[in-house]
Amino acid sequence: MRAIITDCPRQIESRLIRDIPMLIDGIDIVGVDNLAKQRYTLFFNFPKTMQFALVRVDVTDGDLSQIF
User: Fold this and answer.
1) Is 28 left (phi over 0), alpha (psi -120 to 50) or beta?
2) In angstroms, rounded to a whole number, what is the distance separating the alpha carbons of residues 16 and 39?
3) What are the pLDDT digits (tens) for 7-44?
4) pTM greater than 0.85
5) Which of 15, 24, 48, 54 is most buried as measured by Cβ atoms within 10 A of its Cβ?
């Protein structure tokens, strides 16, 4: 199973990225953001066992093929 979280560098979304794997075993988390705001510090200290991938894309572009 895969969870896709948009606008992932924000506080609430980064908390979801940390908490979802504790609730659902074996889930892959995909964070989607264009990183225009450069809030990279929210990506530090993720658990080493967590499956997380960051896709840098603007969801308003319409080309979301790299997410799925």
Assistant:
1) beta
2) 16
3) 887 778 888 888 998 899 999 999 888 888 766 666 77
4) no
5) 54
